[in-house]
Here is the input.
Amino acid sequence: MGEKEMFDYWKDTYKVQTLGWSQAKAEAILAEWQAKFTEEVTALVEDKSLGNRYNINAFSSSHLNEILEAFSEISFPQILLGYALMVRKSNCQADLFEKRR
Here is the structure.
């Protein structure tokens, strides 16, 4: 359930009348719930030592966003190293091509 669906589900109920119910509040509540869920699953796996026999991962959209954010960070040293390796490889291939002529 996304924040829009959660907002639509609860918008006409008496439980949210005094909260100033909005889609932004639904998003905040959902993000907090997903974070607590992930923490609880992680704690259960560690406490019960289920990790030895099973690979259990808590997955939610907020966790996916955290993963994407972590992998979206730019590391300039890695980019420069990759570029240098590509240039070196292309030079080696060019030398090999020249030797075959």
